[in-house]
Design a protein that fits this description.
single chain; mainly alpha; 3 helices; elongated
């Protein structure tokens, strides 16, 4: 039963990770462009590196979570364990995303304060 749970878990978390990463990559470019003063070359390079780091971090974490998996003996346990493990990954994705957004916000705010200070 555990093998089936692993396969379903990997399929779900792989889809969520890749889909969310694509959305972050596509929509995050606007924030990076503003932060990097419309330098498209640097923005695109950094955005690709962030996407790669995001994939490596999350897919690595998905693989590590297998270690914490308990033995599954019934269909009910299968569904429950997949839900628990998948929700753990989704929660961690949300936390990492909001940490990144906070860092981008703080850097943007700092840059604006620096610009205002130098123009006065």
């Amino acid at each position: 039963m555990n093998t089936l749970a692993y396969i379903i878990y990997f399929a779900i978390t792989f889809f969520i990770t890749v889909y969310a990463g694509f959305i972050f990559y596509k929509n995050g470019r606007i924030y990076l462009l503003a932060l990097l003063r419309n330098d498209a070359t640097s923005t695109d390079a950094i955005n690709r590196l962030l996407l790669l780091g995001y994939y490596l971090l999350n897919l690595g974490y998905v693989a590590l979570m297998i270690k914490a998996w308990k033995t599954v003996d019934s269909f009910t346990e299968l569904v429950s364990s997949i839900a628990q493990m998948t929700s753990t990954i989704m929660l961690s994705l949300a936390i990492v995303h909001f940490c990144n957004m906070t860092i981008i916000y703080l850097l943007s705010k700092r840059r604006k304060q620096h610009l205002v200070h130098h123009t006065n």
